[in-house]
Amino acid sequence: MSAPLHERIRAGIEAEILSGTLAPGARLPVEHELMRLHSCSRMTVSKALSALASAGLIERRKRAGSFVARPKVHAMVLDVPDLGAEVIGRGQAYAYRLLGRRMRAPRDEEEKLLAGKGRLLQLDGLHLADGMPLALEHRLVALAAAPEMAEADFSAEAPGSWLLHHVPWTEAETRISAVNADDASADLLGLDPGAALLSVERRTWRGGERITSVRQLFVGSAYDLVARFGPS
Amino acid sequence: MSAPLHERIRAGIEAEILSGTLAPGARLPVEHELMRLHSCSRMTVSKALSALASAGLIERRKRAGSFVARPKVHAMVLDVPDLGAEVIGRGQAYAYRLLGRRMRAPRDEEEKLLAGKGRLLQLDGLHLADGMPLALEHRLVALAAAPEMAEADFSAEAPGSWLLHHVPWTEAETRISAVNADDASADLLGLDPGAALLSVERRTWRGGERITSVRQLFVGSAYDLVARFGPS
DNA sequence: CGATCGATTATGTCTATACATTATAGGCGG
DNA sequence: CCGCCTATAATGTATAGACATAATCGATCG
């Protein structure tokens, strides 16, 4: 019942926008009007409007007033799951099987950029759900950014999960595409060659420094990425 | 040079967090300390801290102080592009070719849910970039939510773009997966049967009312979805 | 010794006011 | 009629203070 006043004002205007009562492009009451409506000070309505503005719902223009933003390119929220947690959350047994582990020097420009001054740790593995192959993972880690990783044991915890808990990223970029399985991948995943795979490539940074680069190949029929937008 | 004071304070603390100077869990100076440091009022530092808190970078606890949040970043931002704008942005020519258009009654439970009290408009089409097939689109629109759409002309503007500008959504859910092309789809996209396709299924709402449901099949090798997280 | 309870300290909200900034509208001159 | 220019109306930033709220620490009492 007793949410803060600025929050109630914000929610009220948000509801009017989402319901369409306030159409895109519509001008909403000026701050002094809202002050009068809610019998409060200007700082309070300003706080409500600032929140709406930073959420992209309205646009504020000096001298002109505040307007409902025209919905441009919408953005959605894509969950970046810890794969293990995700599988267990679906009630399946999760396992990670390490297939290969090498420490080596960077081989090309892209890898040099990742490695920085140090060497690279290459980790190949298989994610399993209820014993069935779910995804094939090829990962490169910059040892300069995560030196402790050279000694880590990945029989219990997958590298992705280990990294998330020890060297969390602050920036990341994900590319999602579809590819046909080559013979080796198909064999490891227990599929026919040519089967459709969902490819998720992710590069992560921590304050400008590259941490890791990973490519996960999901069995197309066994995994969906889900993104959402809206009042959760 | 002269960014607002609260913004400079916010940026300063953000930088310390991202660089690791302030480690996760660390307590940061109390508001009165920051007031003294920057010779400003409490409202100003409070504004800076509020921004950091709403961005999830810090956690504020009464009586205890403010702490750098332990990073449990699970979400990234996925742009939902207007496909035409996206293609043109890459410097290619964009076209949409309507393949089929029918008005009909809902056929199953899922479609009934979408249609509401009205009928459905089914639109099948092909997105082209520089004359090459980019994606096959199968769309169902609830005419109850967008009656004007029955008369719209889709030779100039794709249905997705039309909808975005006329009946913008407020909630959406996207499922992304990979599938092998069936014979008909492969033929329309100019691919061999079995080629990997990126399947993007999206359902949208406007304040509780279903608007449209679309499945886009992208040529796997020609299109990447990109998601980002981090200080833009 | 342990549980409870109050004092203290931090954040949370709000007011009233002041001045800065900026885009617009409308007037004024050419 | 057009272009400049200024007054004005809106938001943006900041101050100082008041009271609310919540959690923690420590002291007191059973």
TrEMBL record, chains A, B:
<feature type="domain" description="HTH gntR-type">
    <location>
        <begin position="3"/>
        <end position="71"/>
    </location>
</feature>
<dbReference type="InterPro" id="IPR028978">
    <property type="entry name" value="Chorismate_lyase_/UTRA_dom_sf"/>
</dbReference>
<keyword id="KW-0805">Transcription regulation</keyword>
<dbReference type="Pfam" id="PF00392">
    <property type="entry name" value="GntR"/>
</dbReference>
<dbReference type="Pfam" id="PF07702">
    <property type="entry name" value="UTRA"/>
</dbReference>
<dbReference type="InterPro" id="IPR036390">
    <property type="entry name" value="WH_DNA-bd_sf"/>
</dbReference>
<keyword id="KW-0804">Transcription</keyword>
<dbReference type="InterPro" id="IPR000524">
    <property type="entry name" value="Tscrpt_reg_HTH_GntR"/>
</dbReference>
<dbReference type="InterPro" id="IPR050679">
    <property type="entry name" value="Bact_HTH_transcr_reg"/>
</dbReference>
<dbReference type="InterPro" id="IPR011663">
    <property type="entry name" value="UTRA"/>
</dbReference>
<keyword id="KW-0238">DNA-binding</keyword>
<dbReference type="InterPro" id="IPR036388">
    <property type="entry name" value="WH-like_DNA-bd_sf"/>
</dbReference>
<protein>
    <submittedName>
        <fullName>UTRA domain-containing protein</fullName>
    </submittedName>
</protein>
<dbReference type="GO" id="GO:0003700">
    <property type="term" value="F:DNA-binding transcription factor activity"/>
</dbReference>
<dbReference type="GO" id="GO:0003677">
    <property type="term" value="F:DNA binding"/>
</dbReference>
